[in-house]
Amino acid sequence: MTDWLMRERMLIGDEAINRLAASRVLLFGVGGVGSYVFEALVRAGVGQLTIVDADKVEPTNLNRQLIADTTTLGMYKVDAAAERAVRINPEIIIDRRAVFADEGNICELIDSASPDYIVDAIDTVSSKLEIIRAAKERGIGIVSSMGTGSKLDPTRFRIADISKTHTCPLAKVMRVSLRKLGIEHCDVLFSDEPPIKGNGERIVGSVSFVPSAAGLIIAGHTVKCLTGLNG
After folding, report:
1. Measuring CA to CA, how many Å separate 140 from each of 44, 169, 218?
2. What is the b/e burial string over 173-195, where b = at least 16 CB atoms within 10 angstroms of the residue's CB?
3. Nearest 5 degrees, angle CA 102-CA 42-CA 211?
4. Domain made up of 6-227: CATH architecture
5. Which distant-in-sequence residues (6+ apart) come within 8 Å of 176 by Cβ?
6. pLDDT tens, position by position, for the chain (231 residues)?
7. Torsion from C-alpha of 79, 84, 85, 87, nearest 10 degrees
8. Model-level pTM greater than 0.90?
9. Fewer CB atoms near the end CB (10 Å): N or C, the chain?
10. Where do the domains of the chain lie?
C-alpha cells in the first residue's frame, strides 16, 4: 500500500508519525463532537482507539454527526465509527465499548484501555467529572469538551485551562465542581460565544458546522500532545 500518511509525514516528520502509530487514545463519546475527533485521529494515524458510547445512530443525528447516514441508522455509534475507521486504515485497532460511562465503570474503562491520552466528548456532568478525576489521579493527559450546543460561530472555540474559561454555562459548572474535587487545572475546549436562547425546549439546538469544528480542534490538540508538537 502506498504511504497513505505521506502528506502528514512531510509536515510533522517520521518521529511524530511513529509516535502516533504507537499511541493509544481513549475517547468518551462519538457523537457531534466525538465523531469528528475520532475520524481526525484515525486519519492522523493513531494506532489504537478505545471508543465508549452507549447510543445508537438516530435520524436526529444526521444533521451533525459524521458517523450518521441512512445506512447507519439504528447501529451502535461505536460500531458505525469502527466500520468507518477500518475502511480508512485497515491496520488500526479499535476497541468498542457500547456502554454508558458513569462513576461505576469509568475507572475500569480507563484501566483496561491503558491510554496515553483521554478525550472527553460526552454531556453528562457527573461522568465528565469522574473521567477528569480518574485521569488526573493516574497522571494521564486529558482534554474535555465543554458546551457546543446553542452556538453558531465555530471560530469562537479554543483550548484553554478550565480556570481560564468564561461565558460557557457548562464550563462554569465544571470549573466549580472540579474545584470542589481539588482539581484546579484541566485542558478544555470552550467557546466564548454566548449561548443562543432557544425556544424553551429541553433539547439544545445544534448545527453541522459547530460541533464538527470543536471536534477537529480537540483532535489537533490531542495529536500535538501525543507527538510533543505542542511545544
Report:
1. 21, 26, 16
2. ebbebbeeeebeebbbbbbebeb
3. 60
4. 3-Layer(aba) Sandwich (3.40)
5. none
6. 689 999 999 999 999 999 999 999 999 999 999 999 999 999 999 999 999 999 999 999 999 999 999 999 999 999 999 999 999 999 999 999 999 999 999 999 999 999 999 999 999 999 999 999 999 999 999 999 999 999 999 999 999 999 999 999 999 999 999 999 999 999 999 999 999 987 666 788 999 999 999 999 999 999 999 999 976
7. 130
8. yes
9. C
10. 6-227
Does residue 155 contact residue 149 with C-beta atoms inside 8 Å?
no
Q: Which residues contact 128 (CB under 8 A, 6 or more apart)?
A: 120, 122, 144, 174
What distance in Å separates the CA atoms of residue 119 and residue 104, rounded to the nearest whole number? 19
Crossing angle between the packed helical segments 211-227 and 34-44, to the nearest 10 degrees: 40
Residue with cell 479554543: 158
The residue type of 91 is E
Cα–Cα distance measured from residue 131 to residue 117, given in angstroms and rounded to the nearest whole number: 12
By CB atoms closer than 10 A (0-12, 13-18, 19+), residue 6 is exposed
Bridge-based pairing state of the strands 117-120 and 24-28: parallel
Cell numbers of 60, please?
436526529
DSSP 182: T
**Which residues have C-beta within 8 Å of that of residue 7, sequence separation ≥ 6?**
none
The closest of 80, 92, 94 to 31, measured between CA atoms, is 80
